[in-house]
User: Fold this.
Amino acid sequence: MKNALGIKQKPIEYALFRDPIGRFAIPYPLGWKFDPDILVVDGEYCVSFQSPNGQGLFSITANGSLDKKFNFESYVKTEFIGPHSGMHGELKKEKFKETTCYRKEYIYESEGRKYFGGEKVFVKDHVLYLLTYHALENKKAEMTKIFEYLMNNLIIRTRK
Assistant:
C-alpha cells in the first residue's frame, strides 16, 4: 500500500475487541486507545477507540433498554435527524448485514480545525446500535478506509 506521495506504507494491523456484555465484537487498529471498562447506564453503554495523536475517533453505543413499543423509523425522524441529534447531514438509508440502517455524514469546525464525521444507526435483536466516527478533514482519505473497515467487520452477537 502506498500513500499519496507514492511512499510504501506498512499495512494496518488489527486486534479484536469483544465487549464484556456479549453483544458485539469489533476489530480496531493496533495502537488505538480505548477504555476496556464499560459502564452500563440504563441498559446503554459505549466504547470509543481513539487513534494516536487524537486524529480520529470511532465509537459504538449499544442500547438494550428499548421500550417494547420502540419504533425505529420514528426514532430516526425525531432523534437521529431531528433538532436533538446534534450534527446535521445528508441522511441515507442503507443495509447493514441485512438490517435496515440509516447513515449521515457531515463536516464541522471546532477550535479552528475542520473535521468530517458520520453516524450509522440500526436495531438488531431489540438493541439499538449507534456507530459514530470523526477525524480531521485532512485525514479523510486515510481515516475513511479505517472507519469503513471497522463498520463492515462489526460482529453483532445474536441472542438465542
User: Anything to note?
Assistant: The CA atoms of residues 35 and 160 lie 28 Å apart. The chain has one domain: 14-156. The two ends are 41 Å apart (CA to CA).
